[in-house]
Amino acid sequence: MGGEGEAKALRRDLVEALRWMNASGLNQGTSGNISIRHGTTMLISPSGVPYDQMEPEDVVEMPLEGEYGSFRARGDNVPSSEWRFHLDIMRQRPEVGAIVHTHSTYATALAICRREIPACHYMIAAAGGPTVRCAAYATFGTEELSKNVLAALEGRRCCLMANHGMLATGPNLRKAMWLAVELETLARQYCLTLTIGGPVVLPDDEIERVMERFEGYGPRPKAKAPARRRRKAG
């Protein structure tokens, strides 16, 4: 599958992921957004369109190269107001194939306190380091916010965004969504530990060991069952 057929499938996956985010409680309303790399373009959710009304054709296409900030869309749709940090991450991090941004409850609560997540659980290794940083505050949709996010993502796959929310990246949408769920879980666990005396933080060398064992960790396509041999009647 490739070309236009692949683009249609990615658009459909993006819309389904947005709907799942709200149904699962990972996001509320239309505050979240998702982008997917497709060749030399970025597919991104449109601004303000309710997820239950969104169609794959509503997804906006933006070039990764060429005129910065230009886009192609159906009708009056425009890209998410957060298109800038999606585009800048894609341009600066070629290994990133998808980005998920949400206002999930626990991650956002920590972001409101401008508090990073320490190594309270070994699963923090999925973030790419011993902490999940919190990007400095800037008004949504601005160049300043994009720069702050890029700084917080240095050597990391996800981050919090001060007084805003969180974002997670991955080589594809499946892994970016998985990391977003793991990040919200870490945030919830950390918040709960703060109510009973605070966590015992794992040392950096332990997180390095876990990261080595995490090579290839995460969701992957289900292995196909071996074909059964047919027997001839007779």
| Helix amount | 25-40%
Mean pLDDT: 93
CATH superfamily: Class II aldolase/adducin N-terminal domain
Question: How is the main sheet built?
Answer: 7 strands, mixed
- CATH fold annotation: L-fuculose-1-phosphate Aldolase
Secondary structure tally: strands: 7
Total number of helical segments? 6
Low-confidence residue ranges: 229-234
Morphology: globular
Neighbour order of strands in the largest sheet? 3-2-1-4-7-6-5
Radius of gyration: 19 Å
Please give the alpha-carbon distance between the first and last residues: 41 Å
Strand content: 5-15%
The appropriate CATH architecture is 3-Layer(aba) Sandwich
Under the CATH scheme, which class?
Answer: Alpha Beta
Order of helices and strands: HEEEHEHEHEEHH
